[in-house]
Amino acid sequence: MKSLKFKIAILALACGITSAFAFKPAPVVNSFWKYANTLKSPTDPTAYVQSTNTCDEHGDLCGIDAPANPSHPAQPTISMALQGRINSLDTSAGDVHLQD
Fold it and tell me: Exposed site from 1, 50, 92, 95, fewest CB < 10 Å?
């Protein structure tokens, strides 16, 4: 009986360790999103399109670096912190890009 309990305990431990490593969430990866619709607010995720282009660091908003929204993958996720940097055209965090 002790042998069976020991085997069950080892099996449970192995399953627990396996599940702890098997179900890690994917890392958040930022993409470049070009500000494409200047008729919309720059904090509106629908105003952006995913792009590989970059911008020059001067003047008006060109784009942002942000992860895709899991519910709407064609739109960026704009956090409150990023929203503040967009509104103030603050490039210090490297996720707001300006153009000439």
Answer: 1
Residue with tokens 């070009």: 34
The Cα–Cα gap between 59 and 43 comes to: 17
- pLDDT truncated to tens, each residue of the chain (100 aa)? 567 666 666 666 666 555 556 666 777 788 999 988 778 899 999 999 998 877 765 668 999 999 999 999 999 999 999 999 999 999 999 999 998 6
Closest C-alpha among 92, 62, 96 to residue 78: 96
Question: 27-42 burial by CB neighbour count: b if 16+ within 10 A, else e?
Answer: eeeebbbbbeeeeeeb
